[in-house]
Amino acid sequence: MRHHPKLIDQFGRTVDYIRLSITDRCDFRCVYCMSEDMTFLPRDEVLSLEECARLVRVFVSLGVSKVRITGGEPLVRKNALWLFEEVGQLQGLNELVLTTNGSQLEKQAVALKNSGVKRINISVDSLKPERFKKITRTGDLNKVLNGIQASIDAGFEGIKLNTVLMRGSNDDEAADLVQFAIDKKIDISFIEEMPLGEVDHTRNSTFVSNTDTLKLLQSKYLLTPSLETTGGPARYWRVANSATKIGFISPHSHNFCESCNRVRITCKGELYLCLGQEDKIELMPLLREFPHDDAPLIAAILGSMAIKPKGHDFDLKRAQPAVIRFMSHTGG
User: Fold this and answer.
1) Angstrom distances, CA of residue 312 to CA of 250, 258, 307, 323
2) Nearest Cα residue to 120 out of 128, 110, 129, 132
3) Any idea what the CATH number is for the domain that residue 45 is in?
4) How many domains does the chain have?
5) What is the pTM of this model?
6) Taking CA atoms, which of 114, 199, 279, 295 is between 20 and 30 Å from 38?
7) pLDDT in tens, 35-77
């Protein structure tokens, strides 16, 4: 494979990690991610799986070594497994990882492992079936718990739960979720709710700070700070006498932009240089206009580095969300 210049932005940060959404559709309707009645994109406005594979190949040729496939729910996309098999073998790609709601893992965990997926992040916001149903609006907790177990049995290198705590909804479950992770010998990350998309509650009233969550957990567990990183924005703490580490992703209380090494591609082929800003480059027209020539695509990607912003600015007290697009649109 011919190697091109690496992706380095105007602030000297090397971009070696992409998050690619392969669908805006999902079988859940989580309250902080979607509205109850979502309108999804028509098929021809969504990247084909072949276009997704081509994008990953080009980014890997530009020095990207970690690719996370997201959605919506990536595993509801028909033939998604083909994409994992196609890119899982790329030379230079060290880590192919997946973010999922876990609903399809019972059936697909083994095939995903065989395709080259190294790690899986599974979103779980409650261990109480009724409450889980309320938060996800359509989800079945049992299915997700079976999916987590299937992933453990399949032997992934890393399995991590992702949890968004919301005041008055599930903020009393932080310790229970950590205990569940410890019992399963897997990791867990707490993600502060982000002001993306118009949802049916005011985020200022539901926001739970990771600083508060950490304090609560420190009163129950012996935690030691860790310098470990998985290439993303999480700061980790190790739980004494366990195999579990707890991550905190804190876009509000701790801005982690100075070390940002990632960009996001939506299922429409929009290259977003920052989750919390609107700067983007449209890649789909280039994919379709030049089906056999990657040069225009490479030029656009290299050029995008000049507009990658220094950071995001999330302010919960704004009347409007910082960014109007839904989390499900940009990819989790």
Assistant:
1) 12, 10, 13, 10
2) 110
3) 3.20.20.70
4) 1
5) 0.89
6) 279
7) 777 888 998 999 999 999 999 999 999 999 999 999 999 999 9
